Amino acid sequence: MTHQRDSGAGPPDEYVEAEIQRLLAEDPSVAEQGITVVRRERALVLSGEVESPHRREEILRRVSERFPDVPITSDIGVIRAQAPTEIEQLP
Predict the structure, then answer these.
(1) For helices 53-66 and 14-26, angle between their N-to-C axes, nearest 10 degrees
(2) Half-sphere exposure of 56 (CA within 13 A, CB side)
(3) Pure H helices in the chain
(4) Is 12 helix (H, G, I), strand (E, B) or coil?
């Protein structure tokens, strides 16, 4: 028995999208405003950019724990927040 709100194997409904968006914004361990949730076929796609691969994994872990029956795909990129370690030499 699954805990999804819709019957059958259809795509997740808007309620789940809104709940994930709320989790991303309001959960203190995530608090990520820049991640969007988009429905694509039978999965929800999380997209946006975060400052580290660890941060991306934490977000995906939290969403998977909260919504274990919802197929989630990550399209979250990592932006380089710190300065480069090497000085770039311009010609």
Answers:
(1) 130
(2) 17
(3) 14-26, 53-66
(4) coil
Number of other residues whose CB lies within 10 A of the CB of residue 3? 8
The pLDDT profile of the chain, 91 residues, written as one tens digit per residue, is 444 444 444 445 778 888 888 888 887 777 787 888 888 887 889 999 988 898 899 999 999 998 898 898 899 999 875 666 666 666 7
Q: Residue length, the chain? A: 91
Q: Which helix (H) or strand (E) holds 49?
A: strand 43-50
The pTM of the whole model exceeds 0.70: no
Q: Which residues share a beta bridge with 78? A: 50
Phi then psi for residue 83, to 5 deg, are -70, 150
CB neighbours of residue 49 within 10 Å: 14
Sign of CA dihedral 55, 59, 65, 68: negative
